[in-house]
């Protein structure tokens, strides 16, 4: 960074300002090319915005120095030569940015000043989609041409590519559309689709995209529209350019028209009043952001009345009637000071980055997850490196990349520990799945001998949703296991034998020891689902534990089947097929049935594997056929694999486990693996020797809510969410976390948000907590 760049603007000499503006223009132009033409930016949006802001500030102080090619006079960059130029009927301009509540207040004040209004102004507040703007021209309701924004005046002709996007109608529906109109909106890629696209590119050894926006831009700007067609691009319409006849009086009305003509408009958009409304809409969009499934980078405010928009007009290149309120940067750079290793309950070693504190999206961040050794190797992150940190919603912050130029000369590659940091110093091994494949997870091979694992395991065992034993916190557990009193969960129930030793400890008086032992005694009777959950088997969470408890009813029945399943685990190919994404249980059964019966078939030799599958196994759906075709490639490989998988079909006990409610093959394999270990069986036996496990209650089938799917949302006043859930389930209802068309009932308390909207959308009945209690007679 040169000296001028860091110098406060009010201290720049005129000569320095000239130099600075030249440098900024070059730098911004270079970024624009990487961003707009190569879809491969090298700086964060925040850094880019900072350059533009500095340029604008220098120009403001030295207005006579504004260059002809000033970045502030341009929107976007020149188009690429690959596409034919298209002149927009009306230029595609971008909005000015706002970064704070004050900016929003100022915007509202400016609008009112200009229009000489006293009352509140109505605005629309729309999510600012982080994609690629496009303009689609319709004549007599038919799509005739589509263009990217380009430099705002002339864009690139991407008509053929735009035609491949499902959200963009080739023919407008409804009525009332002008005979000629340019529809404008954003081409974007959903978060899941982006991840899948990058995963596929990575697997194929191709270049990956930095973010969904670049992926959308790269996908839309393909020379071959067949490639674009394979990308799951989407489109939200929100504006228009040229139009032959007026069709709406307000922005809000116009959005409804766009919808009626067959476009998607963002469901989060709202019409708001005055400055209060603007600020409230911003908070709402901020809260919705992590749940949307696509990237937004702010909120767009527009004056609702189109005649007022007209009066407000433009100042230089941006409209006066609208503004883009941007979210604070979700990325920041900081220095990685250390990498710590944490050992979890299952012995997995998780590296955690310790960072120089930095504010990201309004929150101070000091740690970030590094996931695993492979991730450290992939990032090539070293202690002392400057890193780019990302925080998205409530997710744990993660490190996106490092800045190689800023690496200290003495930084050495990180050596992932080969020994567990526990006092045992046992060897660290790569975790394998039940089918024998290596995973990215490294774990301590010490199992229960590893004190870190033992502690994490005991912590889980006494946690609130498992045995819920008060007075046994981390400190006590550590102390007692150091003394050798706690080696396995069963030892907790033998702590009373150590009463005298406990009393001899510092800070353990008569009362606290009595309370502790009483607390433990109270848990000698335990519900089966808590017992199962407390075992801490991987992939066996609360829901799965409950399903197991309901199915087996007694601990003995569960343990007997789990032990039997331990000898019947599915073979690797069977396991792989049952895990194959796109191949559900029904499709797997169809494949195995086929392998069993081997019907004689007359299928043309030229048939692709997908066609062959369609003819040979009609019960397979398209998704399953694609999944199998991608995995096996040709018929002979598939046939051989199906036969092998059939031979590897697990035994009855295993299948019973896997078929229970939410358990599934993955958790069943974990249960089988758990009970295959001698020390685990001994641990369970010894624990059962101490306990009376209360058989699970079968859910009732004769209540008003039996068999119904219920969603609780908002604050409940008479009971906690957990209680409500447990009670509903006892009464035979299914409790779900999200509203879909399968939901029967939404119980909404104060503060219910998006789920209420979903209920409306799906026409699901909504009742209050009182009405719910009346319904169940509680
Ligand atoms: Zn260890």
From TrEMBL:
Protein name: DNA ligase
PROSITE patterns: BRCT, DNA_LIGASE_N1, DNA_LIGASE_N2
Catalytic site positions: 128
Source organism of the structure: Phenylobacterium deserti
Record PANTHER family: CHROMOSOME TRANSMISSION FIDELITY FACTOR 18 (PTHR23389), DNA LIGASE (PTHR23389:SF9)
Keyword annotations from UniProtKB, A to Z: DNA damage, DNA repair, DNA replication, Ligase, Magnesium, Manganese, Metal-binding, NAD, Zinc
Pfam families per record: BRCT, DNA_ligase_aden, HHH_2, OB_DNA_ligase
CC cofactor: Mg(2+); Mn(2+)
